[in-house]
Amino acid sequence: FCEKTKISLLVPVPALNLGRRRVFSSKFTAVCFHPRKNAVVARSCSPSALVNPTVFFDIAVGSQPLGRVSFELFADKVPKTAENFRALSTGEKGFGYKGSCFHRIEKLEDENFLLKHTGPGILSMANAGPNTNGPQFFICTAKTEWLDDKHVVFGRVKEGMSIVEAMEHFGSENGQTSKKVTIANCGQL
């Protein structure tokens, strides 16, 4: 659904539609990542996925650092989805979220819907319907239970929720950012 709003990077999303139903209100309830170009999705599941890894994003607004957000990935519940996000965060396959210079999209199946959108900080896959996950994700900034069983929850903000909240200030009603918000650096802790 991020493609429909033409979001360029980490951007607050005020209103999105899934079918005929409006999903978000005029208050921001998610920060959504959408690569500038299409992206390759990492597809391996290594032993590191058995432990819940922590990855980080260093966020910049314009050329100024905003801060670091770290995420716990729920590899114990959704190992394939968590490993894919971890590998894209580290760039270990030669591509990833840093710089967001992607060139192709491959869809992934919905792994499961065991985890729910219980409140701020939930990390979830953006998709265009069942089994269409790619590199797009969003970070909830409010409880979004209507997304349960439609979007795979695969992590949570561990530290840096104040950075996610600060990012919301650069959003607008049409989804465009007032300043360029980027993932300046990322990796695994």
From TrEMBL:
GO terms for biological process: protein folding. Residues 56-188 form the PPIase cyclophilin-type domain. Signal peptide: none annotated. One of its GO terms (molecular function) is peptidyl-prolyl cis-trans isomerase activity. It holds the Pfam family Pro_isomerase. It comes from the Eukaryota. InterPro entries: Cyclophilin-like_dom_sf, Cyclophilin-type_PPIase_dom. Coiled coil: none annotated. This is PPIase cyclophilin-type domain-containing protein.
